[in-house]
Here is the input.
Amino acid sequence: MQFTVPFSKDLIYQIIEEFGTPVHILDERGIRETIHNFYGVFSWAEYIKNYYAAKANPNPHIFRITGDEGMGLDCSSLPELVKAEMAGITGENIMFTSNNTAYGEYTKANELGAIINLDDINMIDFLEREVGIPEEISFRYNPGPLQKGSPYFGGDPEDQKYGTMKDQLFDAYRLMAEKGVKRFGIHTMFHSNCLNPEIFVGIYEMMFSLVEEILEKTGVPITRVNFGGGMGIPYNLKDESLDLNSISKGLQRAYDEKIVKRGLDPIKLCFENGRMITGPHGYLVSRVIHTKEIYRDYIGLDACMVDNPRPAMYDAYHHITVLGKENDPHDHVYDVVGSLCENNDKFAKERELPRTKIDDIYIIHNDGAHTEAMGGNYNDKLRSPQVLVTMDGIPKLIKRRETMEDLLRRYTPLD
Ligand SMILES: Cc1ncc(COP(=O)(O)O)c(C=O)c1O
Here is the structure.
Protein backbone atom coordinates (compact mmCIF):
# COMPACT_ATOMS: atom_id res chain seq x y z
CA MET A 1 0.00 0.00 0.00
CA GLN A 2 1.28 3.46 -0.92
CA PHE A 3 0.32 6.37 1.32
CA THR A 4 -0.08 9.79 -0.27
CA VAL A 5 -1.52 13.11 0.86
CA PRO A 6 -4.28 14.51 -1.40
CA PHE A 7 -3.58 18.18 -0.52
CA SER A 8 -0.89 20.47 -1.90
CA LYS A 9 1.93 21.63 0.36
CA ASP A 10 0.61 25.18 0.01
CA LEU A 11 -2.84 24.18 1.19
CA ILE A 12 -1.41 22.37 4.21
CA TYR A 13 0.66 25.44 5.15
CA GLN A 14 -2.42 27.62 4.65
CA ILE A 15 -4.38 25.41 7.08
CA ILE A 16 -1.51 25.45 9.58
CA GLU A 17 -1.33 29.23 9.33
CA GLU A 18 -5.05 29.63 9.95
CA PHE A 19 -5.76 26.89 12.49
CA GLY A 20 -2.35 26.04 13.99
CA THR A 21 -1.01 22.59 14.82
CA PRO A 22 -1.87 19.92 15.71
CA VAL A 23 -4.83 19.79 13.36
CA HIS A 24 -6.96 16.95 12.00
CA ILE A 25 -7.60 17.47 8.28
CA LEU A 26 -10.39 15.55 6.53
CA ASP A 27 -10.84 15.12 2.80
CA GLU A 28 -14.50 15.41 1.73
CA ARG A 29 -13.79 14.26 -1.82
CA GLY A 30 -12.09 11.09 -0.58
CA ILE A 31 -15.00 10.27 1.75
CA ARG A 32 -17.60 10.75 -1.00
CA GLU A 33 -15.60 8.70 -3.51
CA THR A 34 -15.23 5.85 -1.02
CA ILE A 35 -19.01 5.82 -0.49
CA HIS A 36 -19.71 5.85 -4.26
CA ASN A 37 -17.31 2.96 -4.69
CA PHE A 38 -18.89 1.03 -1.81
CA TYR A 39 -22.41 1.32 -3.17
CA GLY A 40 -21.20 0.67 -6.72
CA VAL A 41 -19.67 -2.65 -5.69
CA PHE A 42 -22.94 -3.86 -4.12
CA SER A 43 -25.21 -2.46 -6.85
CA TRP A 44 -26.64 -5.94 -7.61
CA ALA A 45 -28.50 -5.87 -4.29
CA GLU A 46 -32.10 -4.70 -4.22
CA TYR A 47 -31.60 -3.05 -0.80
CA ILE A 48 -28.22 -2.28 0.67
CA LYS A 49 -27.43 0.33 3.28
CA ASN A 50 -24.35 1.16 5.31
CA TYR A 51 -25.16 2.81 8.61
CA TYR A 52 -21.99 4.87 9.12
CA ALA A 53 -20.70 4.09 12.63
CA ALA A 54 -21.02 7.44 14.40
CA LYS A 55 -18.36 6.44 16.94
CA ALA A 56 -15.70 6.39 14.22
CA ASN A 57 -15.78 10.16 13.82
CA PRO A 58 -18.77 11.68 15.61
CA ASN A 59 -18.80 15.05 13.89
CA PRO A 60 -22.27 16.10 12.62
CA HIS A 61 -20.59 17.66 9.55
CA ILE A 62 -19.34 14.17 8.66
CA PHE A 63 -22.84 12.74 9.26
CA ARG A 64 -24.16 15.31 6.76
CA ILE A 65 -21.79 13.99 4.12
CA THR A 66 -22.44 10.31 4.78
CA GLY A 67 -26.19 10.98 5.00
CA ASP A 68 -26.13 12.98 1.78
CA GLU A 69 -24.50 9.98 0.06
CA GLY A 70 -27.27 7.62 1.16
CA MET A 71 -25.79 6.21 4.32
CA GLY A 72 -27.69 5.79 7.54
CA LEU A 73 -26.11 6.30 10.95
CA ASP A 74 -25.24 3.64 13.50
CA CYS A 75 -25.58 5.26 16.92
CA SER A 76 -24.67 3.69 20.25
CA SER A 77 -25.30 6.47 22.77
CA LEU A 78 -27.64 9.35 23.57
CA PRO A 79 -25.19 12.06 22.41
CA GLU A 80 -24.70 10.27 19.10
CA LEU A 81 -28.49 10.23 18.66
CA VAL A 82 -28.66 13.95 19.41
CA LYS A 83 -25.95 14.62 16.82
CA ALA A 84 -27.82 12.47 14.28
CA GLU A 85 -30.84 14.71 14.81
CA MET A 86 -28.63 17.81 14.41
CA ALA A 87 -27.48 16.48 11.06
CA GLY A 88 -31.09 15.81 10.00
CA ILE A 89 -30.81 12.01 10.17
CA THR A 90 -33.89 10.35 11.65
CA GLY A 91 -36.25 7.37 11.35
CA GLU A 92 -35.08 4.18 9.65
CA ASN A 93 -31.85 5.95 8.77
CA ILE A 94 -30.70 5.41 12.34
CA MET A 95 -29.79 2.02 13.72
CA PHE A 96 -29.39 2.19 17.50
CA THR A 97 -26.88 -0.52 18.42
CA SER A 98 -26.10 -0.03 22.11
CA ASN A 99 -25.08 -2.37 24.89
CA ASN A 100 -25.58 -2.06 28.65
CA THR A 101 -27.95 0.72 27.61
CA ALA A 102 -28.55 3.61 29.99
CA TYR A 103 -32.01 4.79 30.94
CA GLY A 104 -33.19 7.51 28.56
CA GLU A 105 -31.36 6.26 25.49
CA TYR A 106 -34.24 4.18 24.12
CA THR A 107 -36.54 7.14 24.70
CA LYS A 108 -34.47 9.29 22.36
CA ALA A 109 -34.01 6.48 19.84
CA ASN A 110 -37.77 5.88 19.83
CA GLU A 111 -38.54 9.60 19.54
CA LEU A 112 -36.35 9.72 16.42
CA GLY A 113 -37.98 6.59 15.00
CA ALA A 114 -34.65 4.73 14.98
CA ILE A 115 -34.46 0.98 14.48
CA ILE A 116 -33.60 -0.44 17.87
CA ASN A 117 -31.12 -3.28 17.93
CA LEU A 118 -31.32 -5.01 21.33
CA ASP A 119 -28.11 -6.41 22.74
CA ASP A 120 -29.75 -8.89 25.08
CA ILE A 121 -32.99 -10.72 25.86
CA ASN A 122 -33.12 -8.99 29.27
CA MET A 123 -33.38 -5.64 27.49
CA ILE A 124 -36.90 -6.48 26.25
CA ASP A 125 -38.39 -5.75 29.64
CA PHE A 126 -36.26 -2.62 30.04
CA LEU A 127 -37.32 -1.38 26.59
CA GLU A 128 -41.00 -2.10 27.21
CA ARG A 129 -41.03 -0.24 30.51
CA GLU A 130 -39.24 2.75 29.00
CA VAL A 131 -40.88 3.19 25.59
CA GLY A 132 -43.14 0.26 24.88
CA ILE A 133 -42.73 -2.19 22.02
CA PRO A 134 -41.77 -0.74 18.61
CA GLU A 135 -43.03 -1.99 15.24
CA GLU A 136 -39.55 -3.15 14.19
CA ILE A 137 -36.95 -4.75 16.39
CA SER A 138 -33.53 -6.27 15.83
CA PHE A 139 -31.34 -8.46 18.05
CA ARG A 140 -27.56 -8.68 18.17
CA TYR A 141 -26.28 -12.22 17.86
CA ASN A 142 -23.12 -13.55 19.49
CA PRO A 143 -22.38 -17.03 18.10
CA GLY A 144 -19.87 -17.83 20.88
CA PRO A 145 -18.13 -21.16 20.21
CA LEU A 146 -20.41 -21.84 17.21
CA GLN A 147 -18.27 -19.64 14.97
CA LYS A 148 -14.50 -19.90 15.15
CA GLY A 149 -11.75 -18.59 13.00
CA SER A 150 -12.51 -14.90 13.18
CA PRO A 151 -10.60 -12.30 15.12
CA TYR A 152 -13.46 -10.79 17.12
CA PHE A 153 -12.15 -7.55 18.59
CA GLY A 154 -8.99 -9.45 19.47
CA GLY A 155 -10.61 -12.45 21.19
CA ASP A 156 -13.07 -15.32 20.81
CA PRO A 157 -16.78 -14.45 20.59
CA GLU A 158 -17.53 -16.23 23.90
CA ASP A 159 -15.18 -13.81 25.71
CA GLN A 160 -17.14 -10.80 24.46
CA LYS A 161 -19.84 -8.96 26.39
CA TYR A 162 -21.92 -8.26 23.28
CA GLY A 163 -25.01 -9.94 21.91
CA THR A 164 -27.39 -12.78 22.56
CA MET A 165 -26.76 -16.53 22.50
CA LYS A 166 -28.60 -18.65 19.94
CA ASP A 167 -31.21 -20.24 22.24
CA GLN A 168 -31.94 -16.90 23.86
CA LEU A 169 -32.40 -15.45 20.40
CA PHE A 170 -35.21 -17.90 19.55
CA ASP A 171 -36.98 -17.08 22.83
CA ALA A 172 -36.49 -13.37 22.19
CA TYR A 173 -38.11 -13.47 18.73
CA ARG A 174 -41.03 -15.60 20.00
CA LEU A 175 -41.63 -13.14 22.83
CA MET A 176 -41.43 -10.10 20.57
CA ALA A 177 -43.85 -11.69 18.08
CA GLU A 178 -46.31 -12.27 20.94
CA LYS A 179 -45.92 -8.65 21.96
CA GLY A 180 -46.93 -7.51 18.49
CA VAL A 181 -43.67 -6.56 16.76
CA LYS A 182 -44.29 -6.43 12.99
CA ARG A 183 -40.80 -6.40 11.43
CA PHE A 184 -37.72 -8.26 12.61
CA GLY A 185 -34.02 -7.83 12.03
CA ILE A 186 -30.84 -9.57 13.13
CA HIS A 187 -27.37 -8.14 13.67
CA THR A 188 -23.88 -9.29 14.43
CA MET A 189 -20.51 -7.58 14.70
CA PHE A 190 -17.88 -10.18 14.52
CA HIS A 191 -14.55 -8.57 13.78
CA SER A 192 -12.70 -5.30 13.69
CA ASN A 193 -10.39 -3.92 11.01
CA CYS A 194 -10.52 -7.20 9.10
CA LEU A 195 -8.87 -7.40 5.66
CA ASN A 196 -9.79 -11.00 4.81
CA PRO A 197 -12.84 -11.31 2.49
CA GLU A 198 -13.33 -15.00 3.35
CA ILE A 199 -14.06 -14.13 6.96
CA PHE A 200 -16.79 -11.72 5.90
CA VAL A 201 -18.36 -14.23 3.52
CA GLY A 202 -18.32 -16.87 6.31
CA ILE A 203 -20.31 -14.46 8.49
CA TYR A 204 -22.83 -13.79 5.72
CA GLU A 205 -23.40 -17.53 5.30
CA MET A 206 -23.77 -17.98 9.05
CA MET A 207 -26.31 -15.15 9.29
CA PHE A 208 -28.40 -16.34 6.33
CA SER A 209 -28.53 -19.86 7.79
CA LEU A 210 -29.68 -18.32 11.03
CA VAL A 211 -32.48 -16.46 9.23
CA GLU A 212 -33.83 -19.82 8.06
CA GLU A 213 -33.39 -21.42 11.48
CA ILE A 214 -35.24 -18.55 13.18
CA LEU A 215 -38.15 -18.96 10.78
CA GLU A 216 -38.27 -22.73 11.35
CA LYS A 217 -38.02 -22.54 15.13
CA THR A 218 -40.13 -19.47 15.84
CA GLY A 219 -42.17 -18.69 12.72
CA VAL A 220 -40.62 -15.20 12.68
CA PRO A 221 -39.53 -13.94 9.24
CA ILE A 222 -36.37 -11.85 9.33
CA THR A 223 -36.46 -8.98 6.83
CA ARG A 224 -33.29 -7.08 7.77
CA VAL A 225 -29.80 -8.47 8.34
CA ASN A 226 -27.11 -6.14 9.66
CA PHE A 227 -23.57 -7.51 9.39
CA GLY A 228 -22.05 -4.77 11.56
CA GLY A 229 -18.87 -2.91 10.71
CA GLY A 230 -15.29 -4.07 10.80
CA MET A 231 -14.22 -3.76 7.16
CA GLY A 232 -10.54 -2.96 7.46
CA ILE A 233 -8.21 -0.45 5.86
CA PRO A 234 -4.48 -0.73 5.18
CA TYR A 235 -2.53 0.94 7.98
CA ASN A 236 0.85 -0.48 7.05
CA LEU A 237 2.88 -0.39 3.83
CA LYS A 238 2.68 -4.17 3.66
CA ASP A 239 -1.17 -4.25 3.97
CA GLU A 240 -3.33 -4.74 0.87
CA SER A 241 -6.68 -2.98 0.49
CA LEU A 242 -9.74 -5.04 1.33
CA ASP A 243 -11.07 -6.75 -1.80
CA LEU A 244 -14.63 -5.42 -1.77
CA ASN A 245 -15.46 -7.07 -5.10
CA SER A 246 -14.73 -10.46 -3.68
CA ILE A 247 -16.84 -9.67 -0.58
CA SER A 248 -19.69 -8.53 -2.80
CA LYS A 249 -19.54 -11.67 -4.95
CA GLY A 250 -19.49 -13.86 -1.83
CA LEU A 251 -22.46 -12.00 -0.38
CA GLN A 252 -24.41 -12.31 -3.63
CA ARG A 253 -23.68 -16.04 -3.84
CA ALA A 254 -24.71 -16.62 -0.24
CA TYR A 255 -27.86 -14.51 -0.70
CA ASP A 256 -28.89 -16.43 -3.83
CA GLU A 257 -28.22 -19.85 -2.31
CA LYS A 258 -29.44 -19.39 1.23
CA ILE A 259 -32.12 -16.72 0.87
CA VAL A 260 -33.51 -16.52 -2.69
CA LYS A 261 -33.50 -20.29 -3.43
CA ARG A 262 -35.23 -20.97 -0.13
CA GLY A 263 -37.90 -18.36 -0.73
CA LEU A 264 -36.76 -16.15 2.15
CA ASP A 265 -36.26 -12.97 0.10
CA PRO A 266 -36.38 -10.02 0.01
CA ILE A 267 -34.08 -9.14 2.90
CA LYS A 268 -32.62 -5.70 3.55
CA LEU A 269 -28.84 -6.01 3.69
CA CYS A 270 -27.16 -3.60 6.10
CA PHE A 271 -23.69 -2.81 7.42
CA GLU A 272 -22.29 -0.49 10.07
CA ASN A 273 -18.86 0.35 8.69
CA GLY A 274 -17.17 3.45 10.02
CA ARG A 275 -13.43 2.97 9.66
CA MET A 276 -13.42 2.15 5.94
CA ILE A 277 -15.56 5.20 5.11
CA THR A 278 -13.60 7.98 6.79
CA GLY A 279 -10.45 6.35 8.18
CA PRO A 280 -8.17 6.80 5.15
CA HIS A 281 -9.40 10.34 4.53
CA GLY A 282 -8.10 11.91 7.73
CA TYR A 283 -4.60 13.32 8.33
CA LEU A 284 -3.21 14.43 11.68
CA VAL A 285 -0.85 17.30 10.95
CA SER A 286 1.65 18.08 13.67
CA ARG A 287 4.81 20.14 14.11
CA VAL A 288 8.14 18.82 15.41
CA ILE A 289 8.88 20.82 18.56
CA HIS A 290 11.90 18.97 19.95
CA THR A 291 14.43 16.29 19.15
CA LYS A 292 16.28 14.19 21.71
CA GLU A 293 19.11 11.67 21.54
CA ILE A 294 19.45 9.22 24.45
CA TYR A 295 19.24 5.41 24.24
CA ARG A 296 17.05 6.01 21.20
CA ASP A 297 16.56 9.06 19.03
CA TYR A 298 13.28 10.86 19.60
CA ILE A 299 11.13 13.23 17.56
CA GLY A 300 8.82 15.27 19.81
CA LEU A 301 5.55 16.38 18.21
CA ASP A 302 3.04 18.95 19.39
CA ALA A 303 0.38 16.22 18.92
CA CYS A 304 0.06 13.50 21.51
CA MET A 305 -2.02 10.42 22.25
CA VAL A 306 -5.14 12.47 23.03
CA ASP A 307 -5.17 13.22 19.28
CA ASN A 308 -4.93 9.53 18.45
CA PRO A 309 -4.76 6.95 21.23
CA ARG A 310 -4.65 3.95 18.85
CA PRO A 311 -0.88 3.43 18.93
CA ALA A 312 -0.90 3.60 22.74
CA MET A 313 -3.99 1.42 23.17
CA TYR A 314 -3.39 -1.25 20.56
CA ASP A 315 0.24 -0.74 19.55
CA ALA A 316 -1.34 0.25 16.23
CA TYR A 317 0.79 1.28 13.27
CA HIS A 318 0.05 4.59 11.52
CA HIS A 319 2.04 5.57 8.48
CA ILE A 320 3.91 8.90 8.69
CA THR A 321 4.83 11.33 5.91
CA VAL A 322 7.29 14.13 6.62
CA LEU A 323 6.05 17.04 4.52
CA GLY A 324 8.47 17.98 1.75
CA LYS A 325 10.76 15.04 2.60
CA GLU A 326 8.67 12.32 0.96
CA ASN A 327 11.52 11.35 -1.36
CA ASP A 328 14.40 11.80 1.08
CA PRO A 329 16.18 8.62 2.18
CA HIS A 330 14.44 7.08 5.21
CA ASP A 331 17.77 6.41 6.87
CA HIS A 332 17.14 7.59 10.43
CA VAL A 333 15.46 5.52 13.12
CA TYR A 334 13.24 7.46 15.51
CA ASP A 335 10.60 7.06 18.17
CA VAL A 336 7.96 9.68 17.43
CA VAL A 337 6.42 10.88 20.67
CA GLY A 338 3.90 13.23 22.23
CA SER A 339 4.34 15.05 25.51
CA LEU A 340 2.16 13.05 27.92
CA CYS A 341 3.62 11.59 31.09
CA GLU A 342 3.01 8.13 29.62
CA ASN A 343 5.76 6.17 27.97
CA ASN A 344 3.26 4.70 25.52
CA ASP A 345 2.53 8.19 24.15
CA LYS A 346 4.31 7.29 20.92
CA PHE A 347 3.06 7.56 17.35
CA ALA A 348 5.85 5.31 16.13
CA LYS A 349 8.59 3.18 17.60
CA GLU A 350 11.97 2.67 15.95
CA ARG A 351 10.55 3.92 12.62
CA GLU A 352 12.77 4.56 9.61
CA LEU A 353 12.16 8.19 8.62
CA PRO A 354 13.98 11.01 6.85
CA ARG A 355 16.42 13.09 8.90
CA THR A 356 14.18 15.43 10.86
CA LYS A 357 14.66 18.86 12.31
CA ILE A 358 12.61 21.13 14.53
CA ASP A 359 9.61 22.73 12.74
CA ASP A 360 9.29 19.89 10.24
CA ILE A 361 5.66 18.92 9.63
CA TYR A 362 4.66 15.33 10.36
CA ILE A 363 1.52 13.94 8.75
CA ILE A 364 0.03 10.89 10.42
CA HIS A 365 -2.19 8.89 8.07
CA ASN A 366 -5.49 7.06 8.60
CA ASP A 367 -6.64 9.70 11.07
CA GLY A 368 -10.28 9.79 9.91
CA ALA A 369 -11.76 7.10 12.18
CA HIS A 370 -11.33 5.93 15.76
CA THR A 371 -8.55 8.47 16.49
CA GLU A 372 -9.71 11.96 17.54
CA ALA A 373 -12.96 10.34 18.69
CA MET A 374 -11.13 8.17 21.20
CA GLY A 375 -9.09 10.99 22.72
CA GLY A 376 -9.61 12.49 26.15
CA ASN A 377 -7.96 15.25 28.16
CA TYR A 378 -5.25 13.33 30.02
CA ASN A 379 -2.56 15.65 31.41
CA ASP A 380 -5.14 18.37 30.76
CA LYS A 381 -4.21 18.42 27.08
CA LEU A 382 -6.53 20.48 24.93
CA ARG A 383 -8.05 18.74 21.95
CA SER A 384 -7.17 19.75 18.41
CA PRO A 385 -9.49 21.15 15.74
CA GLN A 386 -10.93 19.31 12.75
CA VAL A 387 -10.76 20.99 9.34
CA LEU A 388 -12.62 19.62 6.33
CA VAL A 389 -11.21 20.27 2.89
CA THR A 390 -14.46 20.61 0.95
CA MET A 391 -15.26 19.49 -2.60
CA ASP A 392 -14.13 22.96 -3.76
CA GLY A 393 -10.77 22.48 -2.07
CA ILE A 394 -11.61 25.07 0.60
CA PRO A 395 -10.58 24.42 4.22
CA LYS A 396 -13.61 24.61 6.50
CA LEU A 397 -13.41 24.43 10.30
CA ILE A 398 -15.83 21.72 11.48
CA LYS A 399 -14.71 21.48 15.12
CA ARG A 400 -12.75 24.25 16.79
CA ARG A 401 -9.70 23.84 18.98
CA GLU A 402 -10.51 23.24 22.64
CA THR A 403 -9.73 26.20 24.88
CA MET A 404 -8.63 26.55 28.47
CA GLU A 405 -12.12 27.95 29.20
CA ASP A 406 -13.70 24.75 27.83
CA LEU A 407 -11.48 22.73 30.12
CA LEU A 408 -12.08 24.80 33.25
CA ARG A 409 -15.84 25.19 32.75
CA ARG A 410 -16.77 22.02 34.63
CA TYR A 411 -14.89 22.83 37.82
CA THR A 412 -16.96 24.32 40.62
CA PRO A 413 -15.55 27.57 42.11
CA LEU A 414 -12.83 27.18 44.75
CA ASP A 415 -13.90 28.25 48.26
C1 LIG B 1 -21.52 -2.39 17.05
C2 LIG B 1 -20.50 -1.74 16.19
N1 LIG B 1 -20.85 -1.39 14.94
C3 LIG B 1 -19.98 -0.77 14.12
C4 LIG B 1 -18.68 -0.49 14.53
C5 LIG B 1 -17.77 0.19 13.57
O1 LIG B 1 -16.63 -0.51 13.28
P1 LIG B 1 -15.65 0.00 12.13
O2 LIG B 1 -15.54 1.47 12.29
O3 LIG B 1 -14.35 -0.69 12.41
O4 LIG B 1 -16.24 -0.38 10.83
C6 LIG B 1 -18.26 -0.87 15.81
C7 LIG B 1 -16.90 -0.58 16.27
O5 LIG B 1 -16.49 -0.78 17.37
C8 LIG B 1 -19.20 -1.52 16.67
O6 LIG B 1 -18.86 -1.88 17.90
Q: What stands out?
A: The chain has two domains: 28-278, 280-408. Residues 53, 56, 74, 97, 189, 192-193, 228-231, 272-275, 369 surround pyridoxal-5'-phosphate (CB under 6 Å). The chain has a mean pLDDT of 96.
